[in-house]
Amino acid sequence: MQKEKAVRLMLLAVLPGLLLACTRAERAAPATTRFTAPLPENGKMMAPVSAEVDLSQTSAHVTLRFESDGTNVSAEVSGVDGLTVAGATKPIAAASVARGEARSFDVAFSSGPERSNLVVSVSGTFGGATLFRVMTFAVAGESPRVPPPQSPGDGVKGVPSGG
């Protein structure tokens, strides 16, 4: 009987600490996945920009790196397949950029019940021509990833809707 009481008292002393530790673990920052969307070497003319993204289930930190000088450069973010962007959807507007320059911004969002996609669109005037690039990044349902383009001339990188 004495041993049972001692065990119960020990459990009562240990349980609050375990509960606190579990609660703190739940509050830890969500895991992020980093990946890049490099500029293809061949193919269709597109805005000369690559992206590096740290993506979690509720937010993304996006860094765009410009491969040439540009004017009237804009970046827009949106969602498809149930993803809704919270806050500003045009983090870069009518800006001038220099070759090698990097611009970073954060995007908060809520994803749909299945796999959703964050879309980053960049447009501007580069080398006298108006060019654009659209990149999509899968969220939820599986790890974020950027597969290779569907064809050498494909200007869109991302996850095909079927898979």
Reconstruct the topology from this structure.
Blueprint: H1 2-27, E1 33-37, E2 49-55, E3 59-66, E4 70-80, E5 84-86, E6 92-97, E7 102-110, E8 116-126, E9 129-139, E10 156-157
Parallel strand pairs: 9-10
Antiparallel strand pairs: 1-2, 2-3, 3-7, 4-6, 4-8, 5-7, 8-9
Q: Concise description?
A:
With 163 residues, the chain is an alpha+beta fold. The chain is built from one helix and ten strands, in the order H-E-E-E-E-E-E-E-E-E-E.
Description of the structure:
It is a single chain. Strand 2 and strand 3 form a beta hairpin. 25% of the residues are buried. It contains one helix and ten strands. The strands form two sheets. A five-stranded antiparallel sheet has the order 1-2-3-7-5, with no helix packed on it. Strands 6-4-8-9-10 form a five-stranded mixed sheet, with no helix packed on it. The N and C termini lie far apart (61 Å). The C terminus is likely disordered.
